[in-house]
Amino acid sequence: MASQLLKGKKGIIFGALDERSIAWKTALAAHAEGAQLVLTNAPIALRMGKINELSKLCGDAPVIPADATSMPDIEHLFQKSMEALDGKVDFVLHSIGMSPNVRKNIEYTDTNYENFHKTLDISSLSLHRILQTAMKMDALNEWASVVALSYIAAQRSFPGYNDMADAKALLESIARSFGYHYGFKNKVRVNTISQSPTVTTAGSGVSGFDAFLSYAEKMSPLGNASSDDCANFCITLFSDYTRMITMQNIFHDGGFSMTGVSQAIVEDEQKLASQG
Hints:
By secondary structure, the protein is of the alpha/beta class. The chain is 46% helix and 14% strand.
């Protein structure tokens, strides 16, 4: 049950597309916890998704289109958000990621570099643009919290994740680097969450996703963290209870990242061996 953990706080949620999105679930959770919200996504995503439905569920939260690769769009977003919210922003969720190479089934070793640049611009540099714009416009309150969603492929090889692995590695580096500067300047926290594989529009596009979802479930002592679980974790990072956490990549994956092999996987291999 909601405890108004974010009462009086104001936030911007990037990337909600439909009810499968972690951003969608986070917006609902933040609203339930008492926050005022602005919802945003790229214009094409707004046309494809259901963000106006989400707006109604979040108390008619303003929807402001913004291409996160466009500095003028981001500047406009922060200006209009501060007007709509009647003040500076207390938290931001960056839930943005897209790879043309993944969408077109182009193998990592045969990457199209124009597509690769788009992957990095959309999935990683967008965070730098958002933070740089917020800092220049003095748009975030002291102790504000910025959270970006990542994945363990930033540290370890998952072949089907393609160039998104490189993008997530860059995303985490930007969070550390900007977290240093923004922390000293205005006590703003910047962190990334390395989430379990999750059934979203973006995640489902990764080659072999269903098989890996099952594998991760068997490998994780607590099982895979759901999108609702991730949303709740985002709320804690937006709250004042985590105000001394910054520049961290936090694994929210049921223990997958720290498990070498699970008994369930061993037993599956033994069954296969006995059948052979």
